[in-house]
């Protein structure tokens, strides 16, 4: 296991008597867990110490990277006031092979043993080396799923702290979904395989059912999940707070100058036949151009005949069926050419993200681009700071997220809403808690319906009635509450508030 070392935290707000030490535990790539990173950032901004534990992988959001102690720190004016109050523990669990019958039989025991070791080492060894050790952990905030063995290990750590230090941390679970639903549904299988899968899901559900009441408090991403936990896991509603995902301040509309700078860099990675000839000298991009006299002042403006930018952020997994978007774009192109819609814009589809099915789709995307002249699909993997900028340029977003439980919501839609981008989202239970059809976006059920919606929304872009519809959606999105205000109101009191009476319950 790799541990990213840190220096002692700088003196500041976190050393106030009201400051707490919060352990944020993610059994996954912490760089790909935005909600838990936003928790950490909000805690830091509130003046608390944070130890963030998760897998090694992607980098943190820029705000957290700047909070980490640096070997050669930048000038104090550029450092956040909470610089040095974040400690990062990176885990590298052993990943056994799943090839061959024997490997498949021993995969889960070996994987589970590896996870037990990693979490034990992080909490009982790595954390003791942290500069925050002199301040005991007050709160353990755990992402769920995955549930196994995270919930058990977090609970045991809290109990151990209570016995050894007479100071039991508050145990808080942040429910992103139901852990047992992440295992494949046996209803799509048959025979012995279905029996085994049903047994695994039953064990996982029983484990989650037993562990949930042991937590002191809970956060959920939807009201539907809150009700489900109360009804099915026998939790008291007073211990559960809904914390909707909300976009942080970094997600906002991108200015024209920022768009020009961004696409001056990204155009190099976009291979399409209608790339402007001046793109290489930064005078022109697909969407913007410099105007003014040579040698004089130049101004950036949006092109009158720019393409529409459709953005979809996907994890390239079966839960987000990319074939739906691909099929919808084929149908859309057929309608454009069959009806000779000269007013319909060209469309650049930017797909971001990494995942197991990406390599499968890349040849299909190349084939699509060769056969369809009016629509081009490009895949991008962006730096953390460029992702919100790209979303802020988008005309429309597409969400392919479907929930395994029907109780969670796609956080990527929140990112798009933060940038005031209307979204077409595939329908599932409780989506109406976020996307309201005809108010802030559209809801579709299949590729044919999505193609019709895109035809309606983009016809005549960037002018005409379709643009008025998009602008109406943006107005409905504009006043959406941000992460900070929502977190201060809903999560802060539950995570770090009300410790006066709680601290008396040591064990």
Automatic annotation (TrEMBL):
SUPFAM superfamilies: UDP-Glycosyltransferase/glycogen phosphorylase. Pathway: Protein modification; protein glycosylation. Transmembrane segments: none annotated. It is a single-pass membrane protein. The keyword ATP-binding does not apply. Keywords: Endoplasmic reticulum, Glycosyltransferase, Membrane, Transferase, Transmembrane, Transmembrane helix. Its main location: endoplasmic reticulum. Coiled coil: none annotated. The keyword Protein transport does not apply. Pfam families: Glyco_trans_1_4. It is found in: Endoplasmic reticulum membrane. InterPro entries: ALG1-like. It comes from the Eukaryota. GO terms for cellular component: endoplasmic reticulum membrane. GO terms for molecular function: mannosyltransferase activity. This is Glycosyltransferase subfamily 4-like N-terminal domain-containing protein.
């Amino acid at each position: 296991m790799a541990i990213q070392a840190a220096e002692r935290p700088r003196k500041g707000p976190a050393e106030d008597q009201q400051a707490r030490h919060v352990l944020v535990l993610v059994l996954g790539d912490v760089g790909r867990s935005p909600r838990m990173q936003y928790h950490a950032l909000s805690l830091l901004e509130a003046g608390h110490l944070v130890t963030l534990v998760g897998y090694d992988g992607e980098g943190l959001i820029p705000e957290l990277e700047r909070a980490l102690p640096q070997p050669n720190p930048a000038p104090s004016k550029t450092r956040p006031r909470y610089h040095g109050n974040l400690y990062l523990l990176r885990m590298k669990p052993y990943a056994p092979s799943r090839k061959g019958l024997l490997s498949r039989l021993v995969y889960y025991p070996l994987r589970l043993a590896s996870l037990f070791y990693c979490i034990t080492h992080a909490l009982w060894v790595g954390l003791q080396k942290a500069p925050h050790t002199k301040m005991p952990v007050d709160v353990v905030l755990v992402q769920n799923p995955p549930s196994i063995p995270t919930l058990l290990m977090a609970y045991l750590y809290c109990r151990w702290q209570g016995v050894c230090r007479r100071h039991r941390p508050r145990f808080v679970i942040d429910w992103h979904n139901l852990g047992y639903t992440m295992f494949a549904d046996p209803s799509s299988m048959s025979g012995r395989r279905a029996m085994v899968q049903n047994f695994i899901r039953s064990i996982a559900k029983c484990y989650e059912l037993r562990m949930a009441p042991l937590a002191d408090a809970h956060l959920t991403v939807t009201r539907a999940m809150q009700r489900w936990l109360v009804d099915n896991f026998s939790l008291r509603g007073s211990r559960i707070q809904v914390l909707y995902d909300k976009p942080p301040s970094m997600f906002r509309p991108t200015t024209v100058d920022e768009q020009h700078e961004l696409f001056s860099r990204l155009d190099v990675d976009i291979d399409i036949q209608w790339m402007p000839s001046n793109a290489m000298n930064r005078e022109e991009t697909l969407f913007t151009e410099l105007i003014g006299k040579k040698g004089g002042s130049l101004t950036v403006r949006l092109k009158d005949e720019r393409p529409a930018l459709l953005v979809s952020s996907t994890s390239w997994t079966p839960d987000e069926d990319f074939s739906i978007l691909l099929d919808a774009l084929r149908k859309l192109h057929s309608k454009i050419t069959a009806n000779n819609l000269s007013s319909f814009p060209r469309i650049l589809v930017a797909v971001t993200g990494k995942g197991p099915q990406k390599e499968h789709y890349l040849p299909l995307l190349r084939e699509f681009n060769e056969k369809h002249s009016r629509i081009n699909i490009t895949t991008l993997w962006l730096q953390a700071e460029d992702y919100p900028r790209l979303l802020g340029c988008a005309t429309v977003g597409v969400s392919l997220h479907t929930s395994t439980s029907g109780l969670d919501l796609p956080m990527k839609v929140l990112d798009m809403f933060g940038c005031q981008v209307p979204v077409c989202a595939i329908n599932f239970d409780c989506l109406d808690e976020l996307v309201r059809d005809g108010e802030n976006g559209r809801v579709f059920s299949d590729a044919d319906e999505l193609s019709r919606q895109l035809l309606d929304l983009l016809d005549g872009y960037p002018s005409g009635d379709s643009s008025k519809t998009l602008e109406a959606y943006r107005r409905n999105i504009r006043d959406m509450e941000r992460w900070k205000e929502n977190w201060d109101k809903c999560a802060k009191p539950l995570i770090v508030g009300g410790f006066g009476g709680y601290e008396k319950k040591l064990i």
